[in-house]
Design brief:
With about 625 residues, the chain is of the alpha/beta class. It is built from 29 helices and 17 strands. The strands form four sheets. The chain has a seven-stranded parallel sheet with strand order 3-4-2-5-6-1-7, sandwiched between helices. It has a six-stranded parallel sheet with strand order 8-13-12-9-11-10, sandwiched between helices. The radius of gyration is 27 Å and the shape is globular.
Length: about 625
């Protein structure tokens, strides 16, 4: 009798650590993940700010599995929902999504599973969630199997000042009003202090605990290079460091996206365009190829990216200046989500500054918004011209002041910038702008300084000016650098109403009076980056032509194609790399590899052990 009673006792509920290891295959939580999971699993509300790749999804997925009922995840992007659900199904989690891509019959079937409690996690578009009939369905689910939590992903979409503003997000306070006992967790990877305050206010999260992780992405190497021939510079970067890698190249205009993608294809790269002007079917097909194939380069405007869950993006390149530090951080954050080394590379010049300011000034936004956007652009210009550690500069912008610098993962730390006393050159430049009437662009002002006899110089008789020819000690490219940095430093501004003419600011006065020194960075050719043996071992491309690496990737691709999912849904590159480096011989040993949970071990363990055995025996390698 005691034995029978003992066998009928309910099994103890799993802990967060057990779910992390058994379901997701990870040995330990990272950063503040465990704090968030335990707080939400205990019924508390939370606002979570974590960098892209920091593991935000686990912060709501694990509490949803620990609590009674179905976890409801509000997500603004169809592609992200599909990826997340595919990945969860691989882990044995009962997951589904509801959005406009489903046929009515399929949507009804999903809603039926929700009411019956036959789901662990359901992803819902905000537009669908706010419909009265769906809110009524949620009430049915609450009365039955229960609702575990509401997770509001990409919470910065609530902010009117953000570039991803979604008005539906402001109505999500209805969740707290109608389901006050269900915990809510709002998550975002990008939110400065004003946006954070707006999230709290708009979503009614005043009582929520805030978990702010470090915004540092130590695995990303940041580099900014001055534009010379941007296409050739990009190609050299790709050929030297990312041959065969997947990545994203951002351009400002749709035409430049298409031209750059075509040019890269001509150079032998598998490149695809993506922008809002392409037909929806083309965008969808290109995005699908990028997600499901190896080594595809997506050339895109900022219309592409939010919610892209591809972990093995090895580089993000900017051919044009982004709009803000927030945009730059979010876009570069799409590289290296798997935690392996990745690159953020940007080519930048004065033309970018002029184009971006022209774009800002041409909008119909209220003047308050324009001032804010100019301030954000100025912060990004300061970052571009900074001689300090770039990781440190980014973190200070987001309010983190404790990074020590010397990161070893940016151009300024790897190749310390040479600076020079440019006080006299700055005075010449500012004086020439003043004497030419503060109405000409940089090209003409440099011609005057160099003493060139051009049609425009003669037309305006600028050869008569005292500044004519006084700058011949510097080359044209050196003067271009001086003007670019004077604009970035706030000594000059670009007057869009005067067709890009340069104008002096108040900051120029003490320089012209000889009261302030000016030190500028000396532009130099970017050296080729040589990777150490340790770095090569840590990078997927460092595996090179290793027969086992190629065989592991081939098996992953084969399994992914059989199921119609992206390869990284089977295993991340980081998991394959660990298999390559440790070469497990048994299922138990394979189960200790990070990213191999119980469901995946059961499903794929034998297949990957067979690959290891075959290559070891020289079969098929």
């Amino acid at each position: 009798m005691p034995l029978i009673l003992r066998s009928l006792r309910p099994m103890p509920a799993p802990t967060a650590q057990q779910v992390l290891h058994n379901v997701f295959g990870y040995p330990a939580f990272r950063g503040r993940q465990q704090e968030v999971v335990e707080h939400v699993a205990g019924g508390g509300d939370a606002l979570v700010l974590m960098p892209t790749g920091g593991g935000k999804s686990l912060c709501y997925q694990i509490p949803a599995l620990l609590r009674r009922g179905v976890g409801i995840v509000v997500s603004p992007l169809i592609a992200l929902m599909q990826d997340q659900v595919d990945a969860l199904k691989q882990l044995g989690v009962k997951a589904a999504f509801l959005n406009s891509s489903l046929e009515p019959a399929d949507a009804r079937e999903v809603q039926g599973r929700l009411v019956r409690g036959d789901l662990d996690i359901l992803y819902v578009a905000p537009e669908r969630l706010l419909k009265p009939n769906f809110l009524a369905t949620l009430e049915q689910a609450q009365d039955g199997a229960g609702l575990a939590l509401f997770a509001i992903d990409e919470a910065h979409c609530v902010s009117q000042w953000g570039h991803d503003f979604r008005p539906e997000y402001r109505e999500l306070t209805v969740l707290h009003e109608r389901f006050p006992d269900v915990p809510r967790i709002a998550l975002t990877a990008t939110a400065d202090a004003p946006t954070r305050r707006e999230i709290v206010e708009r979503l009614g999260l005043e009582q929520a605990e805030q978990f702010v992780a470090s915004f540092d992405r130590p695995n990303i190497r940041y580099r900014v290079t001055q534009k010379a021939n941007a296409r050739r510079q990009l190609l050299a970067f790709l050929e030297t460091e990312h041959a065969g890698d997947a990545g994203i190249v951002y351009c400002l205009s749709r035409k430049k996206v298409e031209d750059t993608a075509e040019w890269l294809r001509e150079q032998g790269r598998d490149a695809l365009p993506y922008h809002a002007g392409l037909p929806a079917a083309v965008r969808e097909a290109n995005q699908r190829r990028f997600l499901r194939e190896e080594g595809v380069v997506m050339v895109a405007t900022v219309a592409f990216g939010m919610g892209i869950d591809k972990p093995n993006v090895r580089f993000v390149a900017h051919m044009d200046l982004p709009k803000s530090m927030e945009g730059y951080y979010q876009e570069t954050g799409r590289a290296g989500r798997d935690g392996l080394p990745a690159d953020a590379w940007m080519a930048y010049g004065l033309g970018d500054v002029i184009a971006m300011r022209q774009l800002l000034d041409s909008t119909d936004a209220p003047e308050e918004r324009k001032r804010l956007e100019r301030h954000k652009l100025d912060a990004l210009l300061g970052y571009c011209e900074s001689t300090a550690c770039r990781h440190q500069t980014i973190l200070r912008y987001f309010g983190e002041d404790d990074h020590p610098g010397h990161c070893g993962q940016c151009d300024n730390c790897l190749q310390p910038v040479d600076t020079w006393d440019a006080t006299e050159a700055a005075r010449m430049a500012l004086s020439c702008v003043y004497r030419t009437g503060q109405r000409f662009g940089v090209g003409h002002v440099v011609d005057v300084l160099l003493g060139k006899s051009t049609v425009q110089v003669e037309r305006f008789q600028h050869q008569q000016l005292s500044t004519y020819g006084i700058g011949q000690a510097l080359t044209q490219s050196q003067w271009s650098s001086v003007f670019r940095q004077l604009v970035a430093g706030g000594f000059l501004t670009v007057d869009m109403e005067a067709f890009g003419g340069l104008r002096l600011t108040e900051a120029a006065r003490p320089v012209l009076r000889g009261e302030q020194a000016v030190w500028l960075r000396r532009d130099a050719e970017q050296p080729k980056v040589r990777k150490t043996r340790e770095e090569r071992k840590a990078r997927p491309e460092g595996a090179g032509d290793d027969p086992l690496w190629l065989a592991l990737k081939a098996k992953r691709l084969e399994l992914a194609r059989e199921q119609g999912v992206p390869p990284y849904v089977i295993f991340h590159d980081s998991t394959l790399l660990e298999i390559l480096n440790h070469r497990p011989q048994t299922l138990d040993e394979l189960g200790e590899v990070s990213g191999v949970g119980q469901a995946k071990l059961t499903r794929y363990g034998d297949a990957f052990l067979k690959v290891l055995e075959d290559v070891a025996n020289g079969v098929g390698g």
